[in-house]
Structure formats: structure tokens, C-alpha cells
Amino acid sequence: MFARNGECFPGSQESARFRRVSRSKPHSEEYAVTATTVQKKVTRPRADALRNRERIVTAAREMFTEFGPDVPLDEIARRAGVGNATVYRNFPDRDALVREVVCSVMDRTSEAAEVALAATGDAFEALERFVHASADERIAALCPMVQSAFDQHHPDLVASRERIEQLVEELMDRARTAGQLRADVSVGDVLVAVSQLSRPPAGTGCGVADRFVHRTLQLFLDGLRAPARSILPGTALTMEDLRRA
Fold first, then answer.
1. Which CATH superfamily is domain 45-92 in?
2. Segment Disordered: which positions (predicted)?
3. Which of 21, 53, 63, 137 would you label with 182, given CA atoms 20 to 30 Å apart?
4. pLDDT tens digits, 43-56
5. DSSP letter string over the chain?
6. CATH code 3.40.50.150 for 101-244
């Protein structure tokens, strides 16, 4: 008996062929054929399901940035244009959705770093392009979410974090080797600065702050250029320093 378009047809050619196989094969081999058939029926998520998931993540990223990580999931569903059940089918709880948003922003930021690395030309300008692109991804919005209750050691989050750290290190190494980046800064210095400088001051909206973010970031970038004009207090800030803090 084989299924076709949701119905069973006991007299079909497929069914007959299967019965011939069943009679001529031992039980174990019959099971192998059946198992193979079942495995072939495992399909990838449908295109519309993937689109719905992406719409949910995009809407959540926008609303977390605007209102913080505690925005009601019903409001996220409404902005995404899907039903509440679709949200919970993809993300069983708020932590799962927040984690996906964090990973999404980090992955998009990593892609910006990869684009910068692939570009030929001035090494420091590549670092500059990455820093400005990171601000456009609203990476500062991650801070309150990363500090929330979800598992910060989840494999997806760790993989995204390690990827971006490695790429930024490559960008900085290239600029440092070219003699364009001061020697007393590290990955942590850059990521902390991008996060802090792209966050709106207390009492101001994101829209107002966005008008000045790139100006402020360029002032910071000018301070990274070699030769250094001053001696920085303390030591270069690594990601391990941040994790231990």
C-alpha cells in the first residue's frame, strides 16, 4: 500500500513492486527497503515556512531594538504578519526567539566582516567599513538581550560569537601588519566601542541617535590609527577579559 497525494492505492504498480521485493527478500532486507523509503520522504522545510520564520526574526529584531527584549510576542507576530501559533511553532519560548535574534545580528555582522576582508585595497579602510556596517546592524541592541536569562553557552550562540571574534581579529591583524593600526588595542576594544557608541544616550530615541552614530564612530576610528598620539591606560581589552568581568 503506497500513499499518493494523501490517499492509499493498494493496487498501484508501486505497491506490486514492493510486494515482489518483500517476497524475495529476507525480513531484515525488507526492513531496510522500508527504512530507505521513509528516509527519502523526509523533506526540507517548505519555502513559505522558511519565509515565515525569517519574517518573525526580522520583526523581532526591529521591535527588540525599538522597545527592548520584553516586547510582547503577540506584537511581534502582528508586525511579522503571521499568527501567534506560527511564532510558537518556530520558537517555543521567548528565550529561543531572543537567541535566534542575537545569532542573526551576529551572523549579519560577521558577513559584513567577510565582505570587508574580501575587499582589496587599504587595510584600515576595510576595518572602518566593518565598524560602520556593525553600527547599521544595531549591534548595540544585543547588550540587554545577551544579559537576559537564556543560555549564553548555547552552541549556536557560541558559534556565532566565535565567528565574529575571529573575523574582527583578522581585520585588525591585517591593518596592524600594514602599520595602520596602533598596537595596543584588541578585538574587545573595538566591539565594546561599537556597542557603546551606537547606543542612544538615556532619554533619547534611536532615530535621533542614528543621525550621529557614524560621526562618533569615525572619531573613534581616527583614534585607532597608527602612529598613536597618546598612551592608553591599562591593557588591550580581549574578549576573555570581557567574559571574566
1. Homeodomain-like (1.10.10.60)
2. 1-25
3. 137
4. 556 788 899 999 99
5. -EEETTEEETTSHHHHHHHHHHHHS-HHHHHHHHHHHHHHT--PPPHHHHHHHHHHHHHHHHHHHHH-TT--HHHHHHHHT--HHHHHHH-SSHHHHHHHHHHHHHHHHHHHHHHHHH--S-HHHHHHHHHHHHHHTTGGGHHHHHTSSS-TT-HHHHHHHHHHHHHHHHHHHHHHHTT-B-TT--HHHHHHHHHHHTSPPTT--HHHHHHHHHHHHHHHHHHHBSSPSSPPSS----HHHHHH-
6. no
